[in-house]
Write a structure and sequence with these properties.
CATH topology of the largest domain: Citrate Synthase, domain 1
Largest sheet: 2 strands, antiparallel
Helix content: 55-70%
InterPro entries: Citrate_synth-like_lrg_a-sub, Citrate_synth-like_sm_a-sub, Citrate_synthase, Citrate_synthase_AS, Citrate_synthase_euk, Citrate_synthase_sf
Order of helices and strands: HHHHEEHHHHHHHHHHHHHHHHHH
CATH superfamily of the largest domain: Citrate Synthase, domain 1
Number of domains: 2
CATH class of the largest domain: Mainly Alpha
Family: Belongs to the citrate synthase family.
Distance between the termini: 73 Å
Strand content: under 5%
Keywords: Transferase
Protein name: Citrate synthase
Number of strands: 2
GO molecular function: acyltransferase activity, acyl groups converted into alkyl on transfer
Strand order of the largest sheet: 1-2
């Protein structure tokens, strides 16, 4: 370290913290750019692209809104900007233009591993570029180096009652990390708007780094003996999460965590957790407060908690039918569910109109690693029957399975049987998708989000006026 740099570090607490983290991480290539350096290079081009787009086409009508959409949860309205991913109704999700099979093939993997590393996906979502192996290893090391929790956050988790849902504990702990927010401190000090992204980036990396420790502490407190190992600075993100949860010795479970974190990360910007994180961030709340808000949305049974409900339904199903997975038995149980006024959990999606490729990725993992597991056989048998029943029922626009219908079964197989914890894992994964967009929002100067709302009476007046013309 040069004398000038050393003097600057001593004089600037923020720089001191960042430099300590920088030197604590084990970098694999000093010649390659870090994620932050590469993103900083890309900002001017992205800002110019947006300015030119608005200048050339700002008055272009890109869609229309019907009254049904206004009362139907704004379904399908084009009104958000989300750089990381786009969801096609037929082919499914694309991360920066890449399908799930694409990222499984192209993103760097752990040495000897088969599934992509989620930290490599974070790089892709933020920059649009696939990182090198060295850049990915460096990011892994940086995340591990930043993983420790403040004592007051540990105390909040440790003092939470075991009957408080893990997602509530998760949200509380993330909110409490606001004490560490570099963005909040910089904003209070009057930092320039052009530097917002810098502090948002630092908060986002800090937050992402600490999530495994938070999640595992909750898991160990609620379901185990409350003890957890230290983060291993030499392991990648998924391996550290698996190890903290107590399953690190199982190489297949480690691979499952890498796959799980990758495919659950992002599903464009209109879902509740992504939209909420973006919305709260648009008010210049820190990444900690923004993600906590998104986690509260993810906790709902119509969103992230659906995977817990699927597993509970599958277990009830199995108790009722035993090992009889015949087409006739499954068809009868499905009709009994529908005729009772309930939905078949894990089937249907707000946007998709084909089998969710995230489901397919998990199914392929199961076919390779646990083909004889009875719960997987049940899921597979339902997959053969449910689309036909739901099509005949006629009230489901998409009769095909989504990601929730499979993920719980994989976790069950490897011994992580506590279904109420599953949404926490989803929350860790979702951070990989929403935090890059927060950084991009601040880099391009995205404004506060403020759509127009009408009362029902005003809508009546509006549609009558429009129809009379």
């Amino acid at each position: 370290m040069s004398l000038r740099l050393a003097q600057s570090v001593r004089a600037n607490p923020l720089l001191k913290k960042n430099t300590a983290q920088l030197f604590a991480a084990r970098y694999y290539s000093s010649s390659e750019k870090t994620l932050k350096q590469r993103f900083a290079e890309l900002i001017p081009e992205k800002v110019d692209q947006i300015k030119q787009l608005k200048k050339d086409y700002g008055s272009t009508v890109i869609g229309e809104v019907t009254l049904d959409q206004a009362y139907g949860g704004m379904r399908g309205i084009k009104g958000l900007v989300w750089e990381g991913s786009v969801l096609d109704p037929v082919e499914g999700i694309r991360f920066r233009g890449k399908t799930i099979p694409d990222i499984q093939k192209e993103l760097p993997k752990a040495e000897g591993g088969e599934e992509p590393l989620p930290e490599a996906l974070f790089w892709l979502l933020l920059t649009g570029e696939v990182p090198t192996v060295g850049q990915t290893r460096a990011l892994s090391a940086e995340l591990a180096a930043r993983s420790s929790l403040p004592k007051h956050v540990e105390d909040i988790i440790d003092n939470s009652p075991s009957h408080l849902h893990p997602m509530a504990q998760f949200s509380m702990a993330v909110t409490a990390l606001e004490s560490e927010s570099q963005f909040a401190k910089a904003y209070a000090a009057g930092v320039s708007k052009k530097d917002y992204w810098n502090y948002t980036y630092e908060d986002s990396i800090d937050l992402l780094a600490k999530l495994p420790n938070i999640a595992a502490r909750i898991y160990q407190n609620v379901f185990k003996d409350g003890k957890l190992p230290a983060v291993n600075k030499d392991l990648d993100y998924g391996a550290n999460l698996a190890n903290l949860l107590g399953y690190g010795s199982n190489a297949e479970f480690v691979e499952l965590m890498r796959l799980y974190l990758t495919i659950h990360s992002d599903h464009e910007g209109g879902n509740v957790s992504a939209h909420t994180t973006h919305l709260v961030g648009s008010a210049l709340s820190s990444p900690f407060l923004s993600l906590a808000a998104g986690l509260n949305g993810l906790a709902g049974p119509l969103h992230g908690r659906a995977n817990q409900e699927v597993l509970e339904w599958l277990e009830t199903f199995k108790k009722a039918v035993g090992n009889d997975f015949s087409k006739e038995t499954i068809e009868k149980y499905l009709w009994d569910t529908l005729n009772a006024g309930r939905v078949v959990p894990g089937y249907g999606h707000a946007v998709l109109r084909k089998t969710d490729p995230r489901y397919t990725a998990q199914r392929e993992f199961a076919l390779k690693h646990l083909p004889d597991f009875d719960m997987f056989k049940l899921v597979s048998a339902i997959y053969e029957v449910a689309p036909g029943v739901l099509t005949k029922h006629g009230k489901t626009k998409n009769p095909w399975p989504n990601v929730d219908s499979h993920s719980g079964v994989l976790l069950q197989y490897y011994g992580l049987t506590e279904a109420s914890f599953y949404t926490v894992l989803f929350g860790v994964s979702r951070a990989f998708g929403v935090l890059p967009q927060l950084i991009i929002d601040r880099a391009v100067g995205a404004p506060i989000e403020r759509p127009k709302s009408f009362s029902t009476e005003k809508y009546i007046e509006l549609v009558k006026s429009l129809n009379s013309k």
